[in-house]
Amino acid sequence: MFILLLGAPGSGKGTQGKILAERLGVPKIATGDILRGAMKAGTPLGREAKKFYDAGKLVPDQVILGLIKDELVKPQAKDGAVFDGFPRTSAQAELVDKTLGERGQRLNHILLLDVTEEELVRRLHGRAVQEGRSDDTSEAITTRLRVYQQETAPLIAHYAQRGNVHRVPGTGTVEQIAEEIKRIIGR
Ligand code: AMP
User: Fold this and answer.
1) 170 in ligand 1 pocket by Cβ < 6 Å?
2) CATH of the domain at 147
3) Does any ligand 1 atom lie closer than 6 A to the CB of residue 64?
């Protein structure tokens, strides 16, 4: 089963994705985590991504498309995965659709974690204090929320046409939201 978690930065994709992937016994693939690992290790990918990442901008598709492709062909993602943080652009969505489609697979559920802008800002600033991510500065937070609206939110309409988008209210406890997701996907 392939599940896509859609939602703005701070909407809880990482937290819910982890719970869900563990329950389903499938890997969680998070492009943000891969980029953070690459930056920490100082690989060419990490060096290329850093200036975009730190500014809160999207890393260009030219770089990300190859990364997504590599992840999707891994044996552990053969029968299912939870996607966290991608696709984020229409080119990425096309690549995911095409790659799964060629294997006779598809995104089974698209979960939209819906959190108000006010709450997102509050959470991201709170996380900045706790985690110290290099893109949790005030400026980068503002950019990330704007980039989400401009480049990623239009994907909701793209997927809604197919009718498998479920809106998950992102307020409540982590457990309540996880329960709601379980109810929606039926496992
Ligand atoms: P995230 O951890 O998903 O919030 O991602 C943090 C940052 O990594 C984003 O602000 C982008 O700079 C970069 N990033 C992560 N995933 C993608 C993606 N699919 N496409 C482009 N940039 C990405």
Assistant:
1) no
2) 3.40.50.300
3) yes
pLDDT tens-digit readout, 122-146? 999 998 889 889 999 999 999 999 9
Tell me if 17 CB under 6 Å of ligand 1: no
Name, in order, each residue with C-beta under 8 angstroms of 42's C-beta and a sequence gap of 6 or more. none
* pTM listed for this prediction: 0.97
Cα of 59 to ligand 1 centre, how many Å? 7
Two tokens, residue 96: 């995911």
In a domain, 49, yes or no: yes
How many domains are there within the chain? 1
The domain in which residue 79 lies consists of 2-182
